[in-house]
Design a protein that fits this description.
heterodimer; A: alpha+beta; Double Stranded RNA Binding Domain; 3 domains; 6-stranded mixed sheet; B: alpha+beta; PmbA/TldD fold; 2 domains; 8-stranded mixed sheet; 9 helices; 22 strands; globular
Chain lengths: 465, 423
């Protein structure tokens, strides 16, 4: 599927609006978005094919030489001079508040005209084929084990078209991503739920991955029916890639979002150049850092994608910024300005966040644990960038005794404690590497964007409860 | 235009249009300085088509953007019909009849957002009086939402809400050390003194977090939850009783199950409600346009009723489905302030998030700030987490005798969990 024809037809209007607003605002950008999503789902009793979480509209960003203004609207049409007047009126301020505005330098507007495209194979699959695949997978899961009370199979492809226009820049991008999800509700000793998630820009890979994991998801659900509560305590743990990613994301990623630096909300601001993690630790974020769900070509501020190394050999070396925070900090933006949708403000946000692989073998890491747990699958996490406390919940853990994985499952497993203590306790890093592109990330309790995270297996010491 | 095109399509057995128009005025502060001013003027429209075929009902939802032409919408309808024909769900009827134009009471309805925004900002920053304290970030959102539901069976209902959300970050700093808390405050009636008091309370708690120490752990202790976390706990229990959960076999509890079996605590009575005064979640009808019937889903600790949408209610054979009720009420218990003081407790002022897992019988969470009463004195504590078995916690829980209203919750001010493990 090509770039949005709708947005393509709005290029002239975008330029005209930039010019009209440019009479008052020295910096004006227009971001047009056309995101199309489809959600296909089948379970034991129902099925569905419908539009997913898409969006189509525009957001105008302005800088008056002192501060920022934004206006979100559904369409650009008619007289752009009249629209410019309407926008100026809408963002007017009470005079008392005007006096309280920040003074931030004008954003750079380096000339660039470029169109970016990354192909998917979505056009090769019609919706009926995908729905039938989901129905077949649901039936297969239900037939495999009589204890499966319900089985859900979901495929969710989406495509993104974005157009960014300023006086000197005109960028467009088009790409896609899809997630596949298997989930079973299992009745045994007690009820349990287990799931498997796939992410790719190739539906072929998604479908193959889902088909290959039907036995695994049932086996996991069965194990979880006799999972016990963990005895609260401090343990040696080995993380799977999902939990590694959760630590990267919650424990540290939020803490280096530089809009938090501006607000003095991040301890990391004061720790640049300092050891914040074990010296064997390296961490990255960036739309250009790996290929996953957040691998766009330019961000919602029109800044090209970066690969930002955040931690180098245990030392904090860089943060992640959007245009407004970079302007206030007099730094170059890192391509991390992202919006929940065109209706919302851009903030500094993570994209694909991960630890670099190390040199250890996973089996050696497990063998090194006298008593501890291997932790699997992200459930949720909550950041605390100011105070560097974390709460990360794994779906389950498997007890390790005398260097061997046992059949003792625990669920759920909540990790909590101090971020530096956790990161400095990392003693082994595996040579495996996986980034999982199926997550949604909020800032505080809102502003949801698609993100990926992951990395290798880590060995660390952490409080579990 | 959408309605006309839907009515023209002969393959449809029904349709529904949900439209929400939002006008907002938004202020983003960095410390006391205003960084960004935003305004929005947007409409979200989603259309659900229903096609009866092969003795089953198929449905499909699509979104309509302002940019779409009549031809675009017509094509969307045809695509949705095709999608609906792929879906073989059990038959059900759309809710029928009824026109309504509702409005949540609000004293902000006729106010100029620019002036009101300034007054709200002033009310927030009026709380910034704690020595060493500051409000490091504040976002103020003034919304006017107009939601309309129309369907093919004669429903045409509109409701308007004027409401405000404030996200503020009270902070306390001394030297190089600094701590913060998070405050999310929503209201439909602006009361400057109330806003200032709410932020001031959180400012004081930020100061307490700064002085808070980690207590001696591990310990077994009673834990007090406040309304935000009580809402999370009760909502989780209620969601398990939603028609959809029951129909999907994704529910743990069935009607008649005793959620507080062998318990000696206060018995829970929980009612799902359409409206709680002052809450922006309050509504006059649900997304189907169905009228609400307030419903006690847990009575004296026993699962008493399911609740939810018309479709899944019909699947369960419910004659008059309740509608997807958005608010929650719990009845008062017997726990007095004097009772609370009979044993040591942790009063949780700020949690990272209450962690609940019904299947694995778990309740817990990381505590960012709690007040520890050791039997004699009360001190702020931090750096700890609590956990326990949910079933045991429910069986023995106590509810305070004092009622409060906060967000979409009205109910006891405290919920006491006995003997939680704190590490």
């Amino acid at each position: 599927m090509p770039f949005s024809t709708y947005l393509d037809g709005k290029r002239a209007d975008c330029r005209a609006l930039v010019a009209a607003l440019g009479k008052r605002f020295p910096y004006v950008s227009v971001l047009g978005t056309d995101v199309r999503a489809t959600a296909i789902r089948a379970d034991k009793k129902s099925s569905n094919v419908q539009d997913g979480r898409g969006e189509c509209g525009f957001v105008v960003k302005m800088h008056d030489g002192r501060s920022f203004f934004e206006y979100s609207l559904d369409d650009l049409s008619g007289d752009m001079n009249a629209l410019a007047e309407k926008i100026e009126t809408a963002v007017e301020l009470d005079p008392d508040l005007r006096a309280r505005m920040i003074e931030a330098p004008l954003p750079q507007d380096e000339p660039l005209k470029q169109d970016f495209l990354r192909e998917t194979d979505f056009a090769e699959y019609d919706e009926e084929t995908l729905l039938n695949t989901c129905k077949a997978l649901s039936n297969e899961l239900l037939e495999k084990d009589e204890h499966v009370l319900n089985a859900f199979a979901m495929i969710q492809p989406f495509t993104v078209s974005k157009l960014f226009v300023t006086k000197n820049r005109e960028l467009s991008q088009h790409y896609g991503w899809a997630n596949g999800i298997l989930m079973v509700v299992y009745g045994g000793e007690k009820m349990s739920q287990a799931r498997h998630v796939e992410g790719s820009d190739k539906l072929k890979e998604i479908i193959e991955g889902m088909k290959a994991h039907t036995d695994d998801v049932i086996q996991l659900a069965e194990h979880l029916t006799h999972a016990q509560a963990i005895e609260p305590g401090v343990y040696d743990v080995i993380t799977d890639s999902s939990i590694t990613g959760l630590i990267a994301h919650e424990a540290f990623g939020h803490g280096v979002e530089m809009d938090q630096f501006v607000k003095d909300r991040a301890m990391a601001k004061h720790c640049m150049g300092q050891y914040v993690a074990s010296p064997i630790t390296n961490m990255h974020d960036g739309a250009a850092a790996t290929h996953s769900v957040a691998s766009y070509f330019f961000d919602d501020d029109g800044v090209l994608a970066h690969d930002t190394q955040i931690i180098k050999d245990g030392i904090l070396v860089a943060g992640l910024s959007d245009l407004a925070s970079a302007s206030q900090l007099s730094t170059a933006p890192t391509g991390n300005g992202r919006r929940d949708s065109y209706k919302r403000k851009a903030y500094s946000r993570m994209t694909n966040t991960f630890f670099e692989p190390g040199k250890d073998k996973l089996e050696d890491m497990i063998a090194s644990v006298k008593h501890g747990y291997m932790l699997f699958e992200t459930n949720n996490g909550m950041e605390d960038p100011k105070n560097w406390q974390i709460q990360c919940t794994a779906e389950y853990g498997i007890e390790i005794v005398d260097g061997k994985l046992t059949d003792n499952y625990v669920s759920p497993v909540v990790m909590s404690g101090s971020v530096p203590e956790l990161l400095k306790s990392i003693s082994m890093i595996s040579d495996q590497f996986k980034v999982i592109g199926a997550g949604m990330c909020g800032k505080g309790y809102k502003e949801w964007v698609r993100v990926s995270d992951g990395g290798p297996n880590l060995k660390a010491r952490v409080k579990l409860g | 235009m959408i309605q006309r095109l839907l009515e023209q399509n002969r393959e449809l057995s029904g349709w529904r249009i949900n439209e929400t128009a939002t006008a907002s005025y938004e202020l983003f502060f960095v410390h006391r300085k205003l960084e960004t001013v935003r305004a929005t003027d947007t409409v979200s429209t989603s259309v659900t088509v229903y096609v009866d075929h092969d003795g089953k009902k198929g449905d499909s939802v699509f979104t309509v953007s302002a940019a779409m032409t009549e031809a675009d919408v017509k094509q969307k309808i045809e695509t949705a019909v095709r999608r609906a024909k792929l879906v073989f769900n059990e038959p059900y009827e759309l809710p029928e009849g009824g026109e309504e134009s509702a409005e949540l009471p609000s004293n902000m309805k006729d106010r100029d957002p620019k002036e009101l925004g300034r007054q709200i900002a002033d009310a927030v920053f009026a709380a910034d009086t704690v020595p060493g304290g500051s409000i490091n970030a504040c976002e103020i959102f003034l919304y006017r939402d107009t939601a309309r539901v129309i369907n093919s069976r004669g429903i045409d209902k509109t409701q308007q809400k004027h409401w405000v959300m404030i996200e503020a970050i009270p902070t306390f700093t001394e030297g190089a050390e600094s701590v913060e808390l998070y405050e999310d405050h929503r209201f439909t009636d602006f009361d400057a003194a109330k806003v200032t008091a709410e932020i001031a309370r959180r400012m004081a708690e930020a100061r307490d977090r700064f002085t808070a120490k980690k207590p001696k752990v591990p310990m077994e202790i009673n834990v007090l939850l406040r309304p935000h976390e009580i809402t999370e706990l009760l909502s989780e229990l209620a969601d398990d009783l939603n028609y959809q959960s029951a129909y999907m076999h994704a529910n743990l509890h069935k009607i008649g199950d005793d959620l507080q079996e062998n318990g000696d605590g206060d018995k829970l009575t929980v009612t799902m409600k359409a409206q709680v005064p002052g809450s922006e979640a309050s509504a006059s009808f649900d997304a189907d346009g169905a009228a609400f019937t307030d419903t006690s889903v847990i009575r004296d600790g026993v699962a008493a009723a399911n609740f939810g949408s018309s479709r899944f209610g019909q699947y369960l054979g419910v004659e008059k489905p309740t509608g997807n009720l958005p608010c929650i009420r719990a009845e008062a218990g017997t726990l007095t302030d004097a009772d609370m003081k009979k044993a040591p407790y942790l009063d949780c002022a700020s949690l990272s998030g209450l962690q609940l897992d019904l299947y694995n019988d778990y309740i817990g969470g990381e505590i960012r700030l709690a007040y520890y009463f050791d039997g004699e004195k009360t001190v702020p504590v931090t750096g700890i987490s609590m956990s326990g078995k949910l079933s045991a916690a429910l069986a023995a829980l106590r509810l305070s005798d004092r009622m409060v209203t906060e967000g979409a919750y009205e109910g006891p001010q405290y919920l006491l969990l006995k003997g939680m493990t704190v590490l």
